[in-house]
């Protein structure tokens, strides 16, 4: 069974560009979570989605950040007009319905020049 | 506020010595508790979890943790560490709403020969 897949693994953007991070959950999982890890820090929750619904976006910055999990295809975390402070590792996790355990992907490391 | 506190940012230890990594959680999070390990530039791997039942939980790689409700702690232990245990360790709790993980800041375990 394939685990949680994230791509790209590394992404370099210049200030002002857009970054798109993709996450394919484990087979059979319908819950997706995005976390951000700033350098030398722990992971911070950003958003929790189910298919076609945002359940909790309390950790998302109010501007420039958006997330979706369409009926078909991967979940997308989109960062518009990136700034240097967006440089971080972004991790996706997934879980099944009624399952309290989240399985993590390998992360996407975003570098903003 | 919901929080998880890891009391030590770095723990140096010699190979084959015992180690304890400390974790305390606030009463406002759930008592679904987890320890993850992160090797450099990699994702998170689940070491062990407490959901209910026995307060002593055994995980992979010889690690174990004890859930202590009265002290709101979930310390991680290993009786004899190896060089390969050198990594960052994160304690996490499922939030009171059961929809996101609250992470501690991490403890860097450095095992020396």
Describe the structure.
The complex is a heterodimer of chains A (113) and B (113). Helix content of chain A is 0%, strand content 50%. By secondary structure, chain A is an all-beta fold. The termini of chain A are far apart. The model of chain A has no long low-confidence stretch (mean pLDDT 93). Chain B is mainly β. Chain B is built from no helices and twelve strands. In chain B, strands 2, 5, 6, 10, 11 and 12 form a six-stranded mixed β-sheet that branches. A four-stranded antiparallel β-sheet of chain B has the order 3-9-8-7, with no helix packed on it. A two-stranded antiparallel ribbon of chain B has the order 1-4. Classes of the chains: A mainly beta (113), B mainly beta (113). The interface between A and B is medium-sized, with 22 and 26 residues.
List keywords for this structure.
heterodimer; A: about 110 residues; mainly beta; 11 strands; globular; B: about 110 residues; 6-stranded mixed sheet; 4-stranded antiparallel sheet; 12 strands
Write the topology of this structure:
The complex is a heterodimer of chains A (113) and B (113).
Chain A: E1 5-7, E2 10-13, E3 19-24, E4 31-37, E5 43-50, E6 53-56, E7 65-68, E8 75-79, E9 88-95, E10 103-104, E11 108-112
Parallel strand pairs in A: 2-11
Antiparallel strand pairs in A: 1-3, 3-8, 4-5, 4-9, 5-6, 7-8, 9-10, 9-11
Chain B: E1 4-6, E2 10-14, E3 19-21, E4 23-25, E5 33-38, E6 44-50, E7 56-58, E8 64-68, E9 73-78, E10 87-94, E11 101-103, E12 107-112
Parallel strand pairs in B: 2-12
Antiparallel strand pairs in B: 1-4, 3-9, 5-6, 5-10, 7-8, 8-9, 10-11, 10-12
């Amino acid at each position: 069974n394939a685990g949680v897949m994230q791509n790209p693994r590394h992404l370099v953007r210049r200030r002002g560009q857009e970054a798109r991070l993709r996450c394919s959950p484990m087979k059979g999982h319908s819950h997706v979570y995005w976390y951000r890890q700033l350098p030398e820090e722990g992971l911070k929750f950003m958003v929790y989605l189910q298919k076609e619904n945002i359940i909790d976006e309390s950790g998302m910055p109010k501007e420039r950040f958006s997330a979706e999990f369409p009926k078909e295809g991967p979940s997308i975390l989109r960062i518009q007009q990136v700034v240097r402070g967006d440089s971080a590792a972004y991790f996706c996790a997934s879980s099944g319905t009624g399952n309290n355990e989240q399985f993590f992907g390998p992360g996407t490391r975003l570098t903003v020049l | 506020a919901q929080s998880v506190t890891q009391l030590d940012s770095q723990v140096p230890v010699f190979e084959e010595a015992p180690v304890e990594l400390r974790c305390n959680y606030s009463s406002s999070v759930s008592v679904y508790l987890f320890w993850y390990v992160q090797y450099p530039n990699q994702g998170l791997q689940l070491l062990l979890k407490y959901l209910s039942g026995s307060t002593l939980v055994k995980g992979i790689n010889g690690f174990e943790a004890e859930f202590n409700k009265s002290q709101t702690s979930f310390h991680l232990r290993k009786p004899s560490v190896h060089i390969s245990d050198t990594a960052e360790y994160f304690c996490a709790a499922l939030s009171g709403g059961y929809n996101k993980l609250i992470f501690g800041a991490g403890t860097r375990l450095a095992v020396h020969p």
